[in-house]
Amino acid sequence: VQLVESGGGLVQPGGSLRLSCLVSGFSFSRYAMNWHRQAPGKEREFVAVISSAGGSTNYADSVKGRFTISRDNAKNTVYLQMNSLKTEDTAVYFCHVRVWMTDYWGRGTQVTVIS
Fold first, then answer.
1. Model confidence at 62, in pLDDT bands (50, 70, 90)?
2. Residue 96 CA to chain centroid, in angstroms?
């Protein structure tokens, strides 16, 4: 199982970024996918989840209305569209999946929001 995140970068407050997570090694369309993040000095926290077919999503309260998770099962890719970014969104963002009771993580992509 491999998860590879991309799309992070440096952005000003109010800006937008779109993260991608390309996965391989398992039947992507059968599993819910998650995004998590970890800010400096803080524990990793849940950001968003999308169901296997993409029909159901859920978000942390801190990102509701600003972030949108989506997926393309034909491309084995899950996305995180981040709008109206705030300085407190600065973190390393990780893609995550649980397959057969085992958690898999990507290496993460850095998002830095700075004025």
1. very high
2. 8
Taking residues 20-45, report their average pLDDT.
97
- Supply the pLDDT for residue 7: 98
Dig out the tokens for 95 from the structure: 């893609």
**Tokens linked to 74:** 């034909």
Using alpha carbons, list the distances in angstroms from residue 84 to 4, 65, 97: 24, 9, 26
> Residue 55: helix, strand or coil by DSSP?
coil
Looking at 1-115, which runs of residues are DSSP E strands?
2-6, 9-11, 17-24, 33-38, 45-50, 57-59, 67-72, 77-82, 91-99, 102-105, 109-113
Q: In which band, very low, low, confident or very high, does the pLDDT at 55 lie, cut at 50, 70 and 90? A: very high
Per-residue exposure over 71-97, b if at least 16 CB sit within 10 Å of its own CB, e if not = beeeebbbbbebeebeeebbbbbbbbb
CA distance 81 to 103: 23
DSSP 11-33: E-TT--EEEEEEEESS-GGGS-E
- Model pLDDT, residue 47: 98
